[in-house]
Amino acid sequence: MQLAPSAHVDTFTRDHLPPLETWPELLFTLPELSYPQQLNCVEFLLDRHLPGRGGRRCLVTDQETWTYAELAARVAQVANVLVRDLSLVPGNRVLLRGPNHPWLVACWLGVLKAGGVAVTTMPLLRSRELHEIVEMAEVQLALCDAGYLDDLVASGFDQRRIVPYGGSEPDDLLRRAAIQPSTFASVATAADDVCLLAFTSGTTGRPKATMHFHRDILAIADTFSRRVLRPRPDDLFAGSPPLAFTYGLGGLLVFPLHVGAATLLLERAGPDELLEAVARHRVTTLFTAPTAYRAMLASLEGTNLASLRDCVSAGETLPEPTWTAFHEATGIGIVDGLGSTELLHIFISAAGAEIRPGATGRAVPGYVAEIQDPSGSPLPDGSPGLLAVKGPTGCRYLRGDRQETYVRNRWNLTGDIYVRDPDGYFHYQARADDMIISAGYNIAGPEVEQALLRHPAVAETAVVGAPDAERGQIVKAFVVLRPNVAPGPATARELQDFVKSQIAPYKYPRAVEFVAELPRTATGKLQRFRLREPG
Predict the structure, then answer these.
(1) pLDDT band at residue 535 under the 50/70/90 scheme
(2) Torsion of CA 313, 315, 319, 321, to 10 degrees
(3) pTM of this prediction?
(4) Which pLDDT score, from 0 to 100, does residue 203 have?
């Protein structure tokens, strides 16, 4: 594979791509995946809508609505500030920090329009984590919500290179932008110039930076969004994931802009806030995590969800009991999706009549997937093994850090154990490191979790393997009980007996620990490694 000549003056990202021979094979099998060599994704997401459609609503909050024309003007002004005031050159990395808000969107698009590389960070990250990101990405500038400055300043990043937005200081980005021209010619980046460094700690706590191109931003919309979700220009999207999480970037920015739709940006997006927002703003398309859909069940009565058509779930596996309960209560079949930061977004899913409860779905058009054994050989349908994926996006770690752990034989290996059925549907079993081997039995933790979740006393649960002298490992369940349910030995025995009635008795949790909450990342992903820690 030959890369097109880069438009980056600062060649850091091109210089630190992993060696080409370590990349996964990239597939461009759909006609819409044929992109020109020269491509700035902002022109397609934003600028192409302006002739005749600039007056359409684009970004919505409880306080204001921006049209496509207004967003385009502010994006151009941000780009002008970056280039004229801050001396940004194409290829510079710009850290973005703040909650989901129209000005964060304007900053993200402005950075890309000016040829920069966006490094969007979770609002919950603290100074030590920010310091690590700044060091790894060699960040030159930061655009930061004025309410989130403290940890960025404490990280040791040069304060002179931090520009706040939304505050009262004279150097605030909004004041600087207001006096800039509202037009800016997009930098003519290559389709395979890096535009995004997305950091992931996965479930291990050790961060990695994934590198994504301008064409990748469009590819996730031309596959999952176009072929599975199929949104319309009159849709209103909303959801809980931060824009720094690639699930949120796709679902709350790329997908709506790709079709000329609108997105509702919420700074607070818990389950109750989401339901209230759906009813008040008439949201049609919702993106959140399985735990949020389960939490919503208690508040659905009396909530007007008439506008809601599509609910998308990702970030962790969607338990079948949650899908069934939500469907019975609302009539909406949740669209489950498996994606990863390494591939940018969802590559296995199904929607509408194609949904089979309990299955994640089939390979999204544009992607192929198979089940492999540890040596990389394909396994027959019905056999559990490692999920391997190829498509138009793929894993490229900054500096090739641990590239060989994710890419083998030119396939992306997600670290998930799946079974494929004869109809091509993929059924989740466990993370590769979550398979519990107890007295010679292979037990998938998520299967035990689903059984526990069917019990009315259980709000949340996570199952891991715990060391045991006799059995090697035993199944241990951490359980968050619903209000007014008392923890104790009697409740534990009741749950153990219930699991035995639901699945093979040898799979029941021999240890049950009641907890107030489960450990999760800033994106809501369960951190099972913390549950395995002694003590």
Answers:
(1) low
(2) -40
(3) 0.86
(4) 44
